Amino acid sequence: ENRFDRSRMAPKTPIKNEPVDLSKQKGCTPERNPITPVKLVDRPQPDPWTPTANLKMLVSAASPDMRDREKKKELFRPIENSEQSDTPDALQYGMVDDSTADEFEKQRPSRKQKSLGLLCQKFLARYPSYPLSTEKTTISLDEVASILGVERRRIYDIVNVLESLHLVSRVAKNQYCWHGRHNLGQTLKTLQEAGELQYGELMTFFQHKEQDLEYKFVERKKDSQDRSLLDFPEPDCTSASANSRKDKSLRIMSQKFVMLFLVSKTKIVTLDIAAKILIEETQETVDYSKFKTKVRRLYDIANVLTSLGLIKKVHVTEERGRKPAFKWIGPVEFPSKTDEPRGHSPTPDPLPGTQRGACAPYQIYTTGKQKFTRHASFSSTQPCEGARRKVSSEPSSPRQERQDDYCSKMINLAAVCRQKIEEDTRDPSITSPPPLHPVLGDSDFCVNPLPQAVFPVVQADVPNLSLANGVSGPQAPHPSIPAASKTENGKPTLLPNQSFLCFPSSSLFMLCGSLQENNLCETLPTPEDMGNRSGKAQATVPPAACQKRSSHKCASPSAPVDDEEPAAKKQTMEQSDVPLSLVVPKKPYESPVAETTPGNGCTSAVHLEAFHLDFASPVAPEAADKESTQEQEKWFQNKDPDEPSPGKENISQENAHQPFLPQYLYVQPTAGLSSFNFLFPANQAPGAVSLAASQLPSLSVPCVVVPSAALASFPLICSPTITSPLSPVPDGSFSAAASMNFSMSGLASTTPVFIGTTAVVTPKVSPASAVDPQQPAHPALHLSPVLARACGAVKLDSPACMGHPVTLLKLQQPSSTPLTPKSIRPARHEAFFKTPGSLGNPVAWKKNEGSQTRNASSVQRRLEISSTSPD
DNA sequence: CGATCCCGCCACATT
DNA sequence: AATGTGGCGGGATCG
């Protein structure tokens, strides 16, 4: 074992020296057999008998540790010694001097020299990044371990991470196959997709800053973990079997960790957040210790990823202090975009051209899915879950628990996020994250490729798409969508009355519920317009859209959300397309609504096959007040999932009251990647929209917003109206109120959705102004926070978020009841949704449960206004 | 003193 | 039972 190297060094621990050096120099001494048995020993020791040896002995004597080890090993193995040569003098000298030791670096082999990162670099150096496809290089763990002079255990650490990225795959017992980075791009893409499904929302929140929560996590997790892992079937190496084991958490963790980066807009992930997110497993309690352990593992993973040139360490400074974090510097894949300028990474982007190209956002999904392979275990969990969560359908299924967990988790996160978000503090230190605009601007995530051009086109298309199927608009992108069209009822379409718009570029759809008045405009999309807004984009509205339903109004400008992005982006980049749009209808226009909505009021039900909604987690926008946040947070923690949320109730009630609701859709701008977003009109009659009618739970969602993919994932927001005919969710069930999951059918990129029951984001209202009054430009959502607020939209964004705005719109809920987050617990729920800012005063939020009036929420109002101007 | 993370015990899986 | 794997966390270092 220790070859004497260490001995030479300091007597104490300090230096164990690394064999490494030696090994290199030697070149690996072959002699030793790769055989496992010997741990360290790679190189034979120098001769025992040599003077050096003696020294060593002495040294070892000095340090107990050493001694012990040697003992273990047998001090000498004469046998091997053959290599004396290698050991060389250096050692000897070193020993002698002790301090300086050898010439090389042996100098202080401090801990750093033994770091996993360094070790990994050495490991990687042995193999070509892009090996010829034909040959495969096999790696013998023992051999490598010995060559590198480390214990095998360390090699496992490296290999496991590499395996998670498919740079290597295990072929047999001590054997791994080296694949290189050829598939890295694909792998990352897959991870990103998966990540969006799983973490999109969360990350959105957290993004840059987060506060630390205590380590208490609320989550209650129960059942299994979902692990998402992907196993990719790789070409040759499919691992099928491999997985059986308990999962290797390191691998899974590694993938998840990478996912977080890929999903994050800022590309910066702090360790604590990652740890929190990754601790999914069962724990309810959060143990601090567990957290600590997780962090430790993350360091291990981070070291390897750093060696791969995929991430680098940075610090995020928050008010509280600086936190360690890592920034993704690897390729950003798909979209073509690679990475940031910064490019430290030595490694070139691996992305294969082809893949990238491919990357049209939509497509990705499909492919992605296919790719994933999950473990059995896996399958059961997550993805499914999403699916499962049917909202309404089963109240209490086991799953629910999960949901709870999920929800709770989300909540926590949200809370956290909020806090952080609130300010965007960006640290200077952090390089990356440009705040809003800049960032947005960046093409980074935006996918340029698609878009703009499309835009127009789309519109044209729209009609087609539109309604016909219901949702289908762009079917292409989403599988799910197509299905959507039917309703259970048989109603054919989604929304009969609705109109909807698509925005091509981003893939957005708008649906308008019934609108009352007649005119709706759809809006448009141009970003520019939007940006400007105020004017309202209406003008811009594409005719086509209009077509659909006769009347439409346009609301667009108002929608804060839209604006933001687009604006931002435009400015920055034009290309990106981010259209936003919104529509708001006021009333249902026709019967449909009325009819449909009867009891519920309105809810439109949407069924998406794949979708599942979760309600529940509220997102917390950043509330104005932080305080509230915390409270909320706590609240959440405490709260039971089951607990009916006031909001919910409200909603229902409200819904009842109001027949009409807002309807909107939002689609995400980003072209890219992922996801698509939609908004559904709130009002729809129940059932109105159903996407695949699968048995699955359908949800009815009044409105949903989905974030675009690009990054993020944004949560969807649903209007309170949720009740769906279909699934009645009892209040009791937590789910209903609490959360629904929405999952896209498989793929949808952005899975996460938040639906706020109460949602809320109302922008501030200026009644008069209605929509955009003032600030047209702002993007409410994410761009500038300020603006956003102004707008009333809530934005979650933190800087991190920036990209995405998260907004919750409150749709329907009329009474928005302002809740004060703080004040009331019950309220809280809502609170999240609301943005204080938006309303104008945070305080405003009050819970209002029953009380709420029906007044439309401000948001609505706005919308209304814009559209009809009821007010 | 907090951030890192090396080290290797030890349990579980595989052979 | 031996060996392969790898979870895990104490505690040493680093900064």
UniProtKB/TrEMBL annotation:
Signal sequence coordinates:
none
The family this protein is said to belong to: Belongs to the E2F/DP family.
For this chain's UniProt record, which GO biological process terms are given?
A: negative regulation of DNA-templated transcription; positive regulation of macromolecule metabolic process; positive regulation of nucleobase-containing compound metabolic process; sprouting angiogenesis
The entry lists its GO molecular-function terms as: DNA-binding transcription factor activity, RNA polymerase II-specific; RNA polymerase II cis-regulatory region sequence-specific DNA binding
Pinpoint the E2F/DP family winged-helix DNA-binding domain residues: 111-180, 245-330
The transmembrane segments are: none
Q: Which domain of life is it from?
A: Eukaryota
Protein name (Swiss-Prot/TrEMBL): Transcription factor E2F7
Quick one: where is this thing mainly located?
A: nucleus
Q: Which residues form a coiled coil?
A: none
One GO cellular component from the entry?
RNA polymerase II transcription regulator complex
Subcellular localization(s) per the UniProt record:
Nucleus
Q: Where is the composition biased (Polar residues)?
A: 373-383, 850-871
